UniProtKB/TrEMBL annotation:
InterPro entries noted in UniProt: HAD-like_sf, HAD_sf, LarE, Ni-pincer_cofactor_biosynth, PGP-like_dom2, Rossmann-like_a/b/a_fold
Organism: Kribbella sandramycini
Gene this protein is translated from: larE
UniProt-recorded name of the protein: ATP-dependent sacrificial sulfur transferase LarE
Pfam families in the cross-refs: Hydrolase_like
Keywords, comma-separated and alphabetical: Transferase
Length: 464
């Protein structure tokens, strides 16, 4: 009664046993006290010397009688999806026979990483510890025993044999009415835990340089560092180069000033690196190498031991991130990633802190708009910047969030929020882009996609 309502199917199996054996079994009473091992319940109806045989017979009938009759409880799919969204893993630990657990999950299409059966009460703690589970959800006091035995948070749902008050009195850390409440609770709980981890990480440094692009991630990191160790001990460094959109610098300066942190604007010279200009799949490696190597003398000047970047947990999961590797090789730290904070969580926390960047659209460097293999020059970057500003200006009334003009060489691909594609004048946007120096342009029917240039890279693995 945590994930599925198995009572109809289980009742059918017990009634079939009663018909086969002639033993009167109150199937309603049986299903009212589900949770303990099957042998315990079987002993209530059969002599001890028959229990094992009846358990075996029960399990023979179970696949044909109990699986199709069971339904998922409300909120199950959403709860599993919420865990996935946080890059978590899922397991089911049940007193049910392990093959039966697997059959239920398969029948209902529930994607669970690790199904475990044949465990009850505190015994469940063994499996939970073995898989590093930090939260255990159940509907029975025995599930609370299992969570406590593993040192996990005991989340109880009142969809089983115990009321919310009974579960709370028994020692559940959290009591929910049902699983529909779990995703919201999980999001809030995990965010709180990860923010605590972030602040603990930041307070391990007396001073910090934050590589501050002005985007949502680095802005949040900057604000968190100012809270953790004091604004006077934080330096925000925004690199100025042809790859920085012109419109980004002034808001970045205003944001840093609002926090009371020192804001420096060193010039980076990634354009002088052949690997960057060549614009192969590893271009970002040379960009990030230039950035960290430029910031290191600044850190040394102020006596600051570490440079932090705004890399988050989603970036690390994306796989193709040569820039992350370059920063790591040069000793930069990644507090957001280390605290496992996702992009969505960073935005949520930014909103709760009242940061103006909470809903700021993603703004990757201008070079990310140039097709791999097209040699990067300041004039190409300026052309893209002008074209994007022209498109954005024409979409202001539509509340546009994301705009990308992808330079494919002679032509351009225009990406805007997908929901706007059927509402805007394509011809007007194409003309605006062509006016900035492209021979041709067209809107991408798939809409904006972060990192879409990587789709054109034939072998990203070679650049990892």
């Amino acid at each position: 009664m945590t994930l599925i309502d198995s009572r109809p199917g289980i009742r059918a199996v017990w009634e079939l046993l009663a018909a086969e054996t002639g033993v009167p079994i109150d199937s309603d009473l049986v299903v009212s006290r589900l949770g303990p091992p099957l042998t315990w319940e079987m002993a209530n109806w059969f002599p001890a010397d028959q229990v094992d045989a009846m358990v075996a017979r029960y399990r023979e009938h179970y696949p044909s009688q109990a699986i199709t009759g069971s339904l998922p409880l409300p909120g199950v799919a959403e709860s599993l999806a919420a865990i996935r969204a946080l890059h978590g893993r899922t397991m089911v630990v049940s007193a049910k026979y392990t093959p039966s657990v697997k059959l239920h999950l398969k029948h209902l299409g529930l994607d669970v990483d690790e199904p475990v059966g044949d465990l009850h009460g505190a015994e469940k703690g063994t499996a939970l510890r073995a898989h590093g589970a930090s939260i255990f959800v159940g509907d029975h006091t025995a599930d609370i025993d299992g969570a406590q035995a593993a040192g996990a948070v005991a989340v109880a749902v009142a969809t089983g044999p115990f009321t919310a008050d009974e579960l709370r009195a028994y020692g559940a850390d959290v009591v929910l009415n049902d699983l529909t409440e779990f995703p919201a609770w999980l999001d809030a709980y995990v965010l709180e835990q990860r923010l605590e981890a972030l602040m603990k990480r930041l307070t391990s440094y007396d001073k910090l340089v934050v590589a501050f692009s002005g985007g949502a991630d680095s802005a949040f990191l900057l604000a968190a560092a100012a809270r953790a160790i004091g604004a006077a001990n934080v330096v925000a460094a925004t690199a100025i180069s042809p790859s920085l959109p012109v419109a980004e610098l002034e808001p970045a300066a205003r944001f840093a000033d609002g926090l009371g942190v020192r804001h420096v604007t060193p010039h980076t010279h990634e354009m002088e690196r052949e690997g960057y200009q060549a614009n192969a799949g590893d271009r970002c490696y040379f960009c990030k190498a230039e950035l960290v190597e430029t910031l290191q003398p600044i850190a040394d000047e102020f006596g600051i031991p570490a440079i932090a970047t705004g890399t988050n947990a989603d970036d690390a999961k994306a796989g193709f991130r040569p820039g992350i590797r370059a920063a790591h090789e040069r000793g930069a730290i990644t507090p957001l990633k280390d605290a496992r904070l996702t992009k969505a969580q960073i935005r949520a926390a930014s909103r709760s802190w009242g940061l103006a960047t909470s809903d700021k659209p993603a703004a990757a460097c201008l070079s990310s708009r140039i097709a791999y293999g097209v040699r990067i020059t300041p004039s190409l970057l300026a052309r893209v910047d002008r074209a994007e500003q022209a498109v954005r200006a024409r979409l202001t009334a539509y509340g546009v969030q994301n705009v990308r003009v992808r330079d494919l060489g002679a032509s351009a691909s225009i990406e805007i929020d997908r929901e706007l594609l059927d509402r805007v004048d394509h011809g007007e946007l194409v003309a605006a882009v062509v006016a900035e120096g492209f021979l041709a342009a067209q809107l991408d029917p798939r809409g904006f996609r972060s990192g879409s240039m990587n789709e054109r890279l034939p072998d990203p693995e070679k650049y990892r």
